[in-house]
Amino acid sequence: METNFDVLTQRAITLHVGLPKTATTTIQNALFANAELLKSHYGIDYCKDLCGLADVNCTGHHPLAWAEFLPTHSHFKPIDTALVKARFKVPGNILLSSEWFSMATTKQLSITLEKWDLPSDRRVLLIYRNEFDHIRSSWLQAIKMGLCFLSLQEYYLQRYKPWRSPISMKVKKWADLGFAVEVMSFDELKTAENDMTLEILNKLYGIKVDKKLWVNVEASNVSPPRVAVNLYRKLITLVKRFYPSLTSNWSEAEYHVAHDKLCRVLAWLPLKDRRYDEEEANVRHDLEMQPHFYDYQKDSVK
């Protein structure tokens, strides 16, 4: 079948770097599942062949981000820089997706720019969502993975607020390194007529992917009802207090399994939690007192 794009004579790269909890894993799974279609029909290269160079054939975060910026991660495995550099020299549109790119410091990114010989035509995509929803979703994820068992308000005050920064600060390091910056709203993408990933591709490249050829993927990391998760959090907190040996050696995966099983049961109970409702209201009120998170109006800045 003939491709639907002009033969490219230049190199370009787009990095989708988050924010976390904006359907990133679902987007990454969709890009991976449709990598051959995107490359053959639309000239967009997700570099699927490089995904297999990690210790798992990852369909989520692109392994290049692990290999470059997260040596302590369980999926870390060095990837030959010469191979990456040669891969990126091929003319075309490269698109990579991982929140781990956003974890890199300006110095690390500067070194990577030279090491990978990234093209001057480069941009970064950041997707943001309603700030309260972002905080709550991050809190739910932290509990599921066993990273903390704080209440929502405790999580906000201890884990989020001290490091809170506006969108302009999150994209500054990219702009300083010569990246064009594309910013999109998760809430607008979610309510669009298209599948979210298709909508992103349309906005980035001005293409309309044939939906008959597109492979749909299930949404990832969908949280149970918040009241059920909060009760699960309280139960685990009691277990850790009175029977610490029971969970002392649990891995992230074991917390994940316990969370899914217990919350599936708790979700069927007619639960109400006034204390949780009060905490939501307190966090929302405090956010209203903070400097504006969305500190620019344009959808795209450079």
TrEMBL record:
Domain of life: Bacteria
Protein's UniProt name: Sulfotransferase domain-containing protein
